[in-house]
Amino acid sequence: MARLIGGVGSSHVPAIGNALEQGLQSDPYWKPFFDGYKPVWNWMEDKKPDVAILVYNDHGLNFFLDTMPTFAIGAASEYQNADEGWGLKPLDPFQGDPEFSWHLIDSLVHDEFDITMCQEMLVDHGFTVPMSLMWPNQKARDQVKVIPLCVNVVQYPFPTARRCLKLGEAIGKAVASFDKDLDVVILGTGGLSHQLDGERAGHTNRAFDTEFLEKLKSEPEWLLKYSNYELAEIVGPQGVEMIMWLIMRGALGNDIQELSRNYHIPISNTAAGVILFENDAI
Amino acid sequence: MARLIGGVGSSHVPAIGNALEQGLQSDPYWKPFFDGYKPVWNWMEDKKPDVAILVYNDHGLNFFLDTMPTFAIGAASEYQNADEGWGLKPLDPFQGDPEFSWHLIDSLVHDEFDITMCQEMLVDHGFTVPMSLMWPNQKARDQVKVIPLCVNVVQYPFPTARRCLKLGEAIGKAVASFDKDLDVVILGTGGLSHQLDGERAGHTNRAFDTEFLEKLKSEPEWLLKYSNYELAEIVGPQGVEMIMWLIMRGALGNDIQELSRNYHIPISNTAAGVILFENDAI
Amino acid sequence: MKSLAGKEPIPGTTIFEGRMAMKGYELNKMCFSFNKAENREAFMANEDAYCARYGLTEAQRTAVKSRDVLALLSLGGNIYYLAKLTGMFGLNMQDIGAQQAGISLEEFKARLLAAGETKNG
Amino acid sequence: MKSLAGKEPIPGTTIFEGRMAMKGYELNKMCFSFNKAENREAFMANEDAYCARYGLTEAQRTAVKSRDVLALLSLGGNIYYLAKLTGMFGLNMQDIGAQQAGISLEEFKARLLAAGETKNG
Ligand SMILES: [Fe+3]
Ligand SMILES: [Fe+3]
């Protein structure tokens, strides 16, 4: 059976992609950010997961407002990155695991999640930045098969935080029932607090983000008391992306350890966070 | 508040569109079928609903397998029909009610249905045939605003029958909470038993369809004991479309009367059914 | 898929699930393009070139050429998309129903009419 | 929308919900097209004709012309799609952040750095 060995929460802003492209990891602006990923790199190198389920949102590359799914899951053997219009260099294609994707979709639809199934989908920086953050080395990256799970955090209504946590739980169950000897990680990406639009652009919220990170392991339900509208006020309209971390968290169950955590303001216009959980149940 | 005044279950095969186009209502082949719609025509003329929520499936006009939603809801001010490739003449556009659509989507997403939101969508015969069956007169048809709800019954996994019934219940709740003085009908379309593909093409199942129609008012849960795979065996792979009738049925609640029912084999390769419910709670 | 694992196959029936959907992706994509008249014309003008553009396999091209619906289904075609292909050759759902059932159109229609007359159609 | 009904507006913030999404549909659709280099070139070659092709309103065209992000937002633009428009003029997320906040780029960056140094950023 497949084993969900751990999960990572991580930012996915395009500026990180630029920094990686230009090798700025030791630059004073970037060092406090990238240093937070060292435990993740070591863990990934040690564990060598076979498959990554990557929870992210599309920012206008693959999906337009004509057809905006709440939850879309890729079921392709390859996912292409592409020009997003403002200059981030497209990365090499990512290898999918369609058999696993179909198993996941089948299990989730059976458990009453209304998935949009994508046999062809472009993945944008929300997907590629976490991939190059987790596996900066192209060769290591190529050895991980991916399943993109795209969440609507662009056009209201977004899924509720509660629904995201439940989706995570159902993913955990689906992974555990996949009849292949595979080590799987799940990545919840986006956030943390940030606001890109409006007069309040540049808004962040250290206090809230810190509490979120603090409670994520033992009390993830804490976030559920806020509606997405309230979250938009507290952490900015794009900060609401943090609900995607709950999908990751929900998948892991409660027998987990937090191995590392980092928080840094600013990366571009955002507060950036990273957290690494290991599944003790495995 | 908006009132869900009733619901209709109906077939939606393209051949019906052809027959309407050619005025074959009194033709011996068609008469036993169209006669079954007279109570529906009278009821619609009497009730003059303001809005129709039309549950159907796309058959390869608007959605392709690259992006296949489980549940997609239109949120446009107009929906165009178009050439499906094999010759049915496109009908005039249908008027939407985007404010109502957004309310419905908002309520459903809040109730943990993972809706795909469509601000632009072509509607195919699965939508247009029921529209012209309910309102054969163009002028009457133009007076009904529409909300298309498209269900995946093309690519496995389909939503479960249970999920469809629950979606209906949530739709009922959403309609009742819409703060406009509107009379609403819901149409569940597709089916009944038929098989278009494979050596068993032409398969129908009168006994099962009859029981389904018989139980739909008082015991809709009866269908839930069959998986979609079992249904495919019993009523044919396309007969599984009958799960869309459960969405209509679920929306109506339990204080309903059955006003009419008809069943006829064959229309093209299918068993055709129609049933009319009125909501007594209103 | 878990929900289909271990199920007895349904005689004369193919379930269009993930594996078939992947197998037929290009074929169905080509058929989906036939919603547009200009694509139907391009196909009619040069069938081979059009199939090549969508990357159909040799087996799929042969099945397209012979308008063999059962073969197209077994190669991943979905009936709704295939109907757009067969429609170009003037074949409607009843024509291809008869073709798949391996009987004449008259027999196929008679079989459906008979189902309408029995109590267990 | 029910979930937003009666809510106090969030200062300096627009929620991109149904009403805004409809208002900005054409504008965002145009911006979505800028994923492709050839569309960016066509826009750059003739901005007016390109806006006309997507049916933008007069107000939207004026806002496009002046690269006025707050105006574009109030006309239904979504920040992710708009970023593809402003990107063509060499403006990145921080440039348009500063423009919207009504301060210089240096001030905007300094504000973010300051948020990194406080305990309640
Ligand atoms: Fe993002
Ligand atoms: Fe149908």
Overview of the molecule:
The complex is a heterotetramer, with two copies of chain A (282 residues) and two copies of chain C (121 residues). Chain A has a single domain, classed as Protocatechuate 4,5-dioxygenase, Chain B (3-Layer(aba) Sandwich). Chain A contains ten helices and eleven strands. Chain A has an eight-stranded mixed sheet with strand order 6-3-8-2-9-1-11-10, with helices on both faces. In chain A, strands 5-4-7 form a three-stranded mixed sheet. In chain A, a hairpin with a 2-residue loop joins strand 10 and strand 11. In chain C, helix 2 crosses helix 7 and helix 8 crosses helix 9. The longest helix of chain C is centred in the last third of the chain and has 13 residues. The radius of gyration of chain C is 16 Å and the shape is globular. Chain C is built from nine helices and no strands. Chain C has two domains: 77 residues, Dioxygenase LigAB, LigA subunit (Protocatechuate 4,5-dioxygenase, Chain A); 31 residues, no CATH class. By secondary structure, chain C is mainly α. The two termini of chain C are 32 Å apart. The chains are: A alpha/beta (282), C mainly alpha (121). Chains in contact: A-B, A-C, A-D, B-C, B-D. At the A-D interface, helix 9 and strand 10 of A face helix 2, helix 6, helix 7, helix 8 and helix 9 of D.
How many structural domains of chain C?
2
Q: What count of helical segments of chain A does DSSP give?
A: 10
What's the CATH H-level homologous superfamily of the largest domain in chain C? Dioxygenase LigAB, LigA subunit
**Percent range for helical residues of chain A?**
25-40%
| Spatial shape of chain A | globular
The helix-and-strand class of chain C reads: mainly alpha
Order of helices and strands of chain C: HHHHHHHHH
| Residue share in β-strands of chain C | under 5%
Strand order of the largest sheet of chain A: 6-3-8-2-9-1-11-10
List the bound ligands: fe (iii) ion
CATH architecture of the largest domain in chain C: Orthogonal Bundle
The low-pLDDT segments of chain A are none
Instruction: Calculate the mean pLDDT score of chain C and round it.
Output: 94
Gyration radius of chain A (Cα, Å) is 17 Å
Report the structural category of chain A: alpha/beta
Beta-strand content of chain A: 15-25%
